[in-house]
Amino acid sequence: MSIKLRELIRNVRACKTASEERAVIAKECALIRTSFKDEDNTFRHRNVAKLLFIHMLGYPSHFGQMECLKLIASPRFLDKRIGYLGLSLLVEESAEVLTLVTNSLSLDLSHRNPYVQGLALAALGNISNPEMLRDLASVVLKLLSNTNVYVRKKAALCAAQLFKKVPDMVEDFVPVVISLLQDRNHAVLLTATTLMIDIARDHPQFLKKVRKAVPQLVKILKNLVLSGYTQEYVVSDVNDPFLQVKILRLLGFLGKGHAGATEQMNDILAQVASNTEGAKNAGNSILLECVRTIMMIDCEDGLRVLAVNILGRFLGNQVNNIRYVALEMLGQVVHVDKTAVQRHRGIIVECLRDPDVSIRVRAVDLVFMLISHDTVEPLCKEILNYLVVASPEQKKELCTRLAEAAWRFSPSKRWHTNLLVSMLCIAGKNARDEIWQTTISLVGQPESESFRPQIVHRLYASLAEDASQFGLVYTAVWAIGEFGNLLAEPAPSDHDDTSSSAPYPPRSEDEVLDLLEKTRLRHDATLTAKGLILSAFLKLSTRFPSSQARLTELVKSYEDSMAMELQARSCEYLQILTASFDPTVKDEWLAQMPCPTDEEMAERRVKAAEVMSDEDEDGLLDSDDDDDDDDDDDDDDDDDDDDEDDDDDTPRRRKKKGSSGASGAGSSNLLDLDDIFSGGGSSQPTQQQQQQQQQGGGGEIDLLADIFGGGAPAPAATAAPQAPMAAAGTDLLDVFGGGGPAAAPPPPPAGSESFPTLKAFEKNGITVNMDFARGSQDKQVLINATYTNSGSEEVTNFKFQSAVPKYATIKLEAASGSSLPAFGIGDIQQRISVVNSMQGTKPIVMKIRITYSAGGAQVVEQATVNGFPPQL
Amino acid sequence: MINFILLISRQGKTRLKKWFVPCPERDQFRTIKEVSSLILNRSPKVCNFLEWRDYKLCYKRYASLFFIACIEQNDNELLALEMVHHFVECLDRYFGNVCELDLIFNFHKAYYILDEILISGELQESSKRAVLHHISEQDAMMQENEQAKRKG
């Protein structure tokens, strides 16, 4: 016996454990299934309702789909309601079941009861596939002019779905939609404006028509803003905020880029902006939309100032939501008017410290957009502060962005380097490689000599303090290795207030070596770090003259390292360190490294940005920077010897990503060739057809499509997809061989030319062979086509038609006959003359169409012929 | 436009879900899990908006239920909150001081009300009175059907 829905829900809620619940559900499902099978009409709606509940809990319920259809087909409203609900919940849009509903839907759409029509429209609007919409489009269009408001508004939103899924039907709806604006009912106005927004945004070809409605829209908005409240539509002291926002949105789309429309709406926008109360959420939503519209259209400055003021007010608001949307909108304003936003810089920076994470994220974005030459120093400092509290995923991105901003706007090298070092101190673990590589370059550059001692000291101090930030470790170790001699002298501290104001003390050689040793022995020292330290030891042998013995010992201790590379290197270095090694050579090898200049670095950044798409493939270091057990990483072995070959780092990394780079470069090369070929008369249609025929095969297919794209008259569909790649290869080669004017070998003299016979077409025994010869006219080719029939049936009414691309012209002479006896006994000859205006550059391509009767049946064949000799 | 609406309890149980864009069931359940874990773990003091994938999530907590609406990037978030509030007020007027239990036992009625407010992710009726009027008319028709069924 079937139980009521209420009972089922109560039973399920009473279950104490998940398995109990599963048992109850299973039992009920079984009962429902049997009842469905028994075709029980009376309780079907109740069973489907129970099934929907079961579905919401997450259990499978697909067996109910057909039942929903039966319910929809029932004449009772009760059944229909549940049926449609079931349809929207249980059936997915891609299911075939959906098409079965189309019939019921069309019946319900024309039902005399408006509520039934409403049910059908809602179902159609929420879940439907393009075929259904296309079938029912005309009915929906009719319902848009229905007398009942209820039906009209639902039909309008159903049309919105139609616009999305079946864009070519929009044209029929446009006039009706605009006339809907004359309606008095708010709901109809609401839905009509929604429709118009869709049209304005997605179908700009109708924009002109829709723009005519701007005065009407302005009038409606004015009524809403200025007239008194109607109790029905008021929300927190605002008259129908939903309609107001929608109209404002539509005005934005209509006014964009159109001076006339913009002028019509200037007044009302100013009115809305000044009159609307910003105390409650409803009012604020209207103000927000107003600001958005003002930013979209090209209005006078006064309005824009008004908008930015509103945003400024929002920023000071206590409510988090308001501040969030203000920051977001300011992000858009910044592109238009940077100075206005700079005024609020203080508050924005405050937001960086907000406890709410969403606000912080928005504020960071905005701060980055505000960075300019004047503001770079304080803003970068703020971002550094933020970096301290950012989450690890964010840190990586932030470091890159900060480095980029610093690179573009830095006032001095010293400041730049200091900033990068600070960044590494905070987030060296998470920063990308370019950061510390850039830092190294900056430290090593000849221009940095003035502040180099300070930097090296600072790096030393930071390393002593905290060696867990890998980026910092690498930089510091490298700097110590290269410039260890500078550590012997004291240095004044930076003007930066991050470090103490006391000057850096001089470090003795032993101190330095102790620190390096300690860093090396840390449990989380990466192989890269160890490698760098080893190389630093080597370099210090020339900088620290009194520590030779200790250095040799330190290098020796690497001899039994588990990493192959380290072991090998240590042996090599030991050789260099022996007393008998030639000191001049040693000095030369271990001298200071030349660092890339600014221009070279800029070039590298550009190249690095190109290959930046494979983000996590760090190339040099293993990508698991966040893992601390890097000792297992064998990948690092060949990355160890970095310091000696710093200049090679980026190229090597680029080489590693060379495959992607090369393919990128390769395709661009091919595209270059493509340009040569499409630089002919038929470039326009070929491009269109290229798009049609594009199969994502990259540059080669483009070329191919281009060659075939010349088959203008016939439909493009049959062309390129069928072409075998082999033909493409030979075509390419042919083109290379016979093609380009400069590159090609001089064409053989005309008289001695002979061309192979081309078998243009062969099917069902019908063969078309073509012989070529140069014509007397310029660029003319004479083709002698021979048709034979090797089948068993005689062929009559044989007709041959052909077409060539736009850059050639064709003339067919009369054929010698129109019937082909079977078994190849006879043949038909036909002379064809083709003038190829792009002779030498583009070969001829021909589309042929053959019609004949054979065995009482009419046969039509179409094909593309593309084996023409390239010189013709 | 609103892509989907979710009502989840504080324990993470789905009380109502409606998608306005095509979405296979598997993806729906996955999305629900993701979104509910994101939102249920948020502190009450933070703002009601969240960036998620390519969309924005606007949510509001009413008693023990979270109402979540997922909107497009360039939509007005404050208005989305207003729409959710509109829905809640309609529910409130219909059920008379609605609580979560009402929505559990009468989920189908909640869906009917939602259908009167939103179609295809857009608002269709901004007057609560009109919404309730239509709902009550349809309920009356259901009653007639029930009575006719019992008689015949």
Automatic annotation (TrEMBL), chain A:
Subcellular location: Cytoplasmic vesicle membrane; Golgi apparatus
Top-rank lineage group of the source organism: Eukaryota
Residue ranges occupied by any GAE domain in the UniProt entry: 753-869
Coiled coil stretches, renumbered: none
UniProt entry keywords in alphabetical sequence: Cytoplasmic vesicle, Golgi apparatus, Membrane, Protein transport, Transport
Region described as Disordered: spans on this chain: 594-709, 737-756
Biased composition (Low complexity): 659-668, 683-694
Ranges of Acidic residues composition bias in the record: 612-649
Similarity-based family: Belongs to the adaptor complexes large subunit family.
Protein name: AP-1 complex subunit gamma
TrEMBL record, chain B:
Highest taxon above the source species: Eukaryota
Transport as UniProt keyword: yes
InterPro entries listed in its UniProt record: AP1_sigma, AP_complex_ssu, AP_mu_sigma_su, Longin-like_dom_sf
Location (main, coarse): membrane
Subcellular location: Cytoplasmic vesicle membrane; Golgi apparatus
A matching Pfam family: Clat_adaptor_s
Gene3D superfamilies associated with the record: 3.30.450.60
Domain AP complex mu/sigma subunit: 1-140
Keyword line: Cytoplasmic vesicle, Golgi apparatus, Membrane, Protein transport, Transport
Family: Belongs to the adaptor complexes small subunit family.
Name of the protein in its database record: AP complex subunit sigma
Species in which this protein is naturally found: Durusdinium trenchii
Lineage: Eukaryota, Sar, Alveolata, Dinophyceae, Suessiales
